[in-house]
Design brief:
The protein is of the alpha/beta class and about 290 residues long. It has 10 helices and 8 strands. Strands 2-1-3-4 form a 4-stranded parallel beta sheet. Strands 6-5-7-8 form a 4-stranded parallel beta sheet.
């Protein structure tokens, strides 16, 4: 009887074992869970409270990568400063870069802002293009389709369920996009200044003009000279909105706002970056509300 019970327990463990997926950022974790459902166990590596370029590669993250069957990364160079050391330490051949278990979400996206030249003289540029494509909610379905394709290849026994989940998710997301698009139309042609070029995909989609950045170059802190020039430009062009992400310093944006009469609007860069954005839907709803109020 004990042997039978043990055998049933072992069989149950095998049957109901979840497919282990590691996602680099929270928004990717939500997409994986949406299409993976109960068949996947998802671990997110980066906290939305910090700069996605400079995540601390904590040793505590290594065991999850070592156990992973699949790793979903944003790609386009966004994780280049912190993910490779973790992958090396985890030593998991399933999820090494270029392995079948390493899923680069940027492969599902048409990247914009590709630099004409790559040099440190131009700041912290991304050779493949702007990696912050998650700001545009229309990119969610292509990424979900790509993740579903990879999940189905690696976990064939649940492929039908993954595709069923994708169909349900895509149907709901398309309905959401109609509402989101309608709200975003109300701020078409608005002119804004960004701290960092985090929202270019969103702004391009909805016809909002990004006129300048508080950073003189990507990853370079604002100088007094650049800040003064930016204040003059904003006054001349009557620019009244500054898009501030949650993790960069806010002192400069508020100084510029005080000199120009502009408003500093904090826009989340990922799910959970600000209060009330713990789902994909609330993340984008918050963006639309803050940007188009």
């Amino acid at each position: 009887m004990k042997k039978t019970t043990l055998l049933l327990s072992l069989l149950s463990t095998v049957v109901f074992a979840q497919f282990n997926v590691v996602a680099s950022y929270p928004y990717l974790g939500r997409i994986v869970k949406a299409v993976g459902g109960d068949n996947v166990k998802v671990k997110v590596l980066a906290s939305p409270r910090f700069d996605p370029h400079f995540v601390i590669p904590k040793p505590s993250l290594i065991p999850a990568i070592a156990r992973a069957d699949m790793l979903v990364a944003n790609g386009a160079g966004l994780e280049i400063g912190w993910l490779p050391p973790l992958l090396k330490s985890a030593n998991n051949p399933k999820v090494r870069i270029s392995s079948t278990g390493f899923v680069d979400a940027s492969h599902a996206i048409r990247l914009i802002d590709k630099p004409k030249a790559v040099s440190r003289a131009y700041g912290d540029v991304h050779p493949e293009g702007n990696p912050h494509f998650n700001s545009d909610p229309h990119n969610i379905i292509p990424i979900a389709k790509y993740v579903t394709k990879k999940l189905s290849q690696l976990d064939i026994s649940h492929a039908q369920e993954y595709h069923h989940n994708l169909t349900q998710f895509a149907t709901k997301w398309k309905r959401f996009l109609k509402t989101f698009d309608a709200q975003m139309k109300t701020c078409k042609s608005k002119k804004v200044v960004q701290y960092h070029e985090l929202y270019n995909y969103l702004l391009k989609r909805y016809g909002i003009r990004s006129t300048a950045t508080i950073e003189p170059l990507p990853g370079i802190a604002p100088s007094s000279k650049h800040t003064i020039a930016l204040i003059q430009k904003m006054k001349k062009e009557n620019i009244k909105m500054i898009l501030q992400d949650p993790y960069h310093e806010k002192k400069t944006a508020h100084f510029i706002a005080a000199k120009t009469g502009a408003k500093v609007t904090v826009i989340p860069h990922d799910v959970g970056a600000v209060s009330g954005t713990d789902t994909l839907k609330t993340f984008y709803e918050t963006i639309a509300t803050r940007l188009c109020h």
